[in-house]
Amino acid sequence: MAAHAVFESGLAFDQDSWRSLPDEALITAYREGWGPRTREDAADELFRRHQSRITRWCCRFTHDRETAADLAQEILLRAYRNLDKYRGECRFSTWLYVIARNCCFTAVQRRGTEPVWIAKSQSTELPDTLSIDIHEAFETEQARQSNWRFILETLDKTEARVMLLHYGEEQ
């Protein structure tokens, strides 16, 4: 029996039943105002079950827990304000993650222009890709010289020149 029918029939509808309803049933309860509590309680339950996942998702985007928590709160508030616009053409979680993605993209773009965030984004934990490992560079050069020596010893001048142009100068 559907949750709505159970509630209207007067049968017991305890707190655990409320929490076990699927998202779509909670949306229906919110829109139609049925259930053991107020319609806002249906929305609270709906967003409570998605809040931690949305916060983790935002954290992966921003790499900052405080910003992620603020973003998650903004996303859930935006979804709550637009809950009547949810058409049910996709799962509720999909609709919610579209809102999350859009908010996170906007926040990251906005944050990229703020001087405070630019300074925070320069991590000391990242390797310096412009520095040269002298030992690796020396080994690479020795291997390159050894390979060219082998080519010059085994091929005639024309073949060696073709190899140099093709592999050495990428022509």
Secondary-structure-derived class:
mainly alpha
Mean pLDDT: 77
The CATH class label of the largest domain is Mainly Alpha
CATH superfamily of the largest domain: RNA polymerase sigma factor, region 2, helix turn helix motif
Unreliable runs: 1-13
Task: Please compute the radius of gyration using only Cα atoms.
Answer: 30 Å
- Morphology: elongated
Largest sheet: none
In CATH, the architecture of the largest domain is Orthogonal Bundle
Q: How helical, in percent, are the residues?
A: over 70%
How far the N terminus sits from the C terminus, by CA atoms, comes to 74 Å
| Tally of strands | 0
Strand content: under 5%
How many domains, as an integer? 2
What's the assembly state of these chains?
single chain
User: What is the number of helices?
Assistant: 9
What does this structure look like?
The protein is an all-alpha fold and 171 residues long. The chain has two domains: 119 residues, Orthogonal Bundle (Rna Polymerase Sigma Factor, Chain: A); 35 residues. Helices cover 72% and strands 0% of the residues.
Summarize the SSE layout with pairings.
Layout: H1 3-8, H2 15-20, H3 23-32, H4 39-62, H5 65-81, H6 92-111, H7 115-121, H8 134-154, H9 157-168
Structure at a glance:
The protein has 171 residues and is mostly helical. It contains nine helices and no strands.
Name its key features.
Rna Polymerase Sigma Factor, Chain: A, 72% helix, elongated, 171 residues, mainly alpha
